[in-house]
Design goal:
The protein has 312 residues and is α/β, with parallel strands linked by helices. The chain has 12 helices and 12 strands. It is globular, with a radius of gyration of 20 Å.
């Protein structure tokens, strides 16, 4: 590989990892979803969705399922653009074909490239340890393994400090995190680990396993102390528009999290669902939500809000 590799990232988290490794200047192309840091937003975009991104959670879910059931990728790649960009490395993922372009799609595109034969670096995170390994994997592929080691050590150190402090908190609230509203999907993968480190107990999903679909009855039966609502790809404003999906249900007001004003909405687009360095900020937010008297990192009313409870 050249000393100055040309990098294309096809996943928002991958773009953030490359930038955190100090290699932003080597990025030549990104995906349609990449938006952080802001300085990368003018780079050529190598992917686009095959479905409309507007509408309700239910509408988006149905469009994605219709395409996936035909055995197709829900995103398309601009092979001509990739060819012009001549990347040495393409960072993609194999975890979720709804999150980004699938690995087979990338491999087919690379087979058509004429001017370069890039190395494909696939990421597959389902736990925090996987996220750290993915950072190492990208760093090794880009010939900066020492930067990867330093970055992971810094992220782990910040998380460990929060975990140590949370252990001293007098209670551990029972938490359900919601990563999609219709159908109702509970945050799996690394979310239970983040909640545990923030001083809570995550319900209805297992660490290191994919996010399960649940019924409202299941949510009512476990009746969590805290609800954290972070739909994948949604800003706070988008989520607020979607909340009637839950709040118009008669059972909603029965939840103790609702009655006690412990329903929180965070930016699920920028945080929580991205398997990159800003999972540390996601942990900070959870700590603020669960133990507001012990933690204040300045995220409240900026990256997360308390959802107004039902007034009796």
């Amino acid at each position: 590989m050249t000393a100055h590799p040309r990098i294309v990232t096809l996943l928002a988290a991958a773009t953030e990892i490359v930038c955190a490794l100090g290699l932003q200047d080597h990025l030549v192309g990104i995906s349609h979803e990449c938006d952080y840091p802001e300085s990368i937003r003018d780079l050529p975009r190598c992917t686009s969705p095959k479905f409309q991104l507007d509408g309700t959670s239910y509408d988006i879910d149905q469009r994605v399922r219709a395409i996936a059931q035909e055995g197709l990728s829900v995103y398309r790649m601009d092979v001509d653009l990739l060819n012009r960009l001549r990347p040495d490395v393409i960072v993609t993922q194999i975890q979720c074909e709804v999150c980004a372009v699938s690995l087979p799609e990338v491999e087919r595109a690379v087979a058509q490239l004429v001017s370069s034969r890039p190395q494909i670096v696939p990421l597959n995170p389902v736990s925090l340890s996987d996220v750290w390994e993915d950072i190492h994997r990208v760093a090794r592929a880009l010939n900066v393994p020492h930067r990867g080691e330093r970055l992971v050590a810094q992220l782990k150190q910040r998380m460990a400090a929060i975990h140590r402090k949370s252990r001293g908190c007098p209670n551990r609230p029972r938490v359900v995190s919601i990563e999609w509203l219709d159908p109702l999907i509970v945050g799996g993968n690394w979310m239970p680990e983040l909640v545990e480190r923030a001083g809570g107990k995550h319900l209805l999903a297992q660490a290191g396993q994919h996010s399960p679909i649940i019924s409202l009855d299941q949510l009512l039966n476990c009746d969590p102390d805290v609800l954290v609502i972070v739909p994948c790809g949604f800003t706070i404003d988008q989520t607020l528009k979607e909340m009637p999906t839950l709040t118009t249900r008669e059972e909603w007001a029965q939840l103790q999290a609702v009655q006690n004003g412990r329903v929180f909405i965070a930016d699920g687009n920028q945080f929580f669902n991205r398997s990159g360095p800003r999972l540390v900020e996601s942990l900070e937010m959870l700590a603020e939500m669960l133990h507001p008297n012990q933690f204040d990192f300045g995220h409240r009313d900026r990256n997360w809000i308390a959802y107004m409870p039902i007034r009796q």
